[in-house]
Amino acid sequence: MRFNRRARLDSDQVRTRKGGAAAVGGGAGIIGVLVVLALQFLGGGGGDIGGALGALEGTQVGGRSTSEAIEGCETGADAERSQECRIVAVVNSIQDTWSTQLEGYQPTVTNFFTGSVTTGGCGSATSAVGPFYCPADQQIYVDLGFFDELESRFGASGGDFAEAYVLAHEYGHHVQNLIGVRAERSSGPESDAVRQELQADCFAGVWANHATTTPDPDTGEILILELTETDIRDALSAAAAVGDDRIQEAATGDVDPHTWTHGSAEQRQGWFLTGYETGDPNRCDTFAADEL
Ligand SMILES: [Zn+2]
Predict the structure, then answer these.
(1) Which of 186, 209, 214, 259 has a CA positioned 20 to 30 A from the CA of residue 251?
(2) Distance CA 204, CA 184 (A)
(3) Cα 171 to averaged position of ligand 1 atoms, centre (Å)
(4) pLDDT score at 64
(5) pLDDT digits (tens, 9 = 90+) for 39-61
């Protein structure tokens, strides 16, 4: 991924969230359930609802947190030297694309956090959940440590574009929220939950298709000048690594499709590629697809 070094970044789209409720032991109970239902996570948090529930035990709804804009990320040159600025650039590019592709698109913020975070509408979460989108406040939450885990714990090939895929997937959930896609809680390889996740993967691919051709509507500049085959391979590797079957296999050695909520490695790669190859969000109607 090569950035346009002179292009201006909009660092207001990424913020750092500090503070939040102190974690308390036990008692997640019904609050934990509500929180999990409200979150739409990537699939890294243990790979299923049960895993996410476990991760949320000991967190508490409420508390206060403050958010601060990322400073010092001004140009594409900054994106080439720092991970935080690279994420700003990728988020800018994703939102430039959706502003072009989706009439009425409303930009939203990505929040970095460490350890745990109090969201603006989905209660508290810890980094064990993995990156997630909160439909109630329409914001994205990412612990930067997850990107290392993607490689070290989930076995993805890593790379800058693996991060970009994760962010684009979460913005895919934002697009779904804006257009009114909301799946019932369910599981299984053909379930609505899986269809919703695969659509987010497809939307991530749609962005990748347009990333090097979409200018910033304000400045007219294209932020990302080049994606390589390695970039796409890194995205596919990350998509596979957070597939339900891969996560289950690594965790227990058993694969149980009935409990899938995000889709298999093959399904996730397939739908990312559908989006990437066509660049057409209308081809991402996973809910109408006979085969996933
Ligand atoms: Zn997701």
Answers:
(1) 186
(2) 22
(3) 9
(4) 55
(5) 667 764 433 333 333 333 333 34
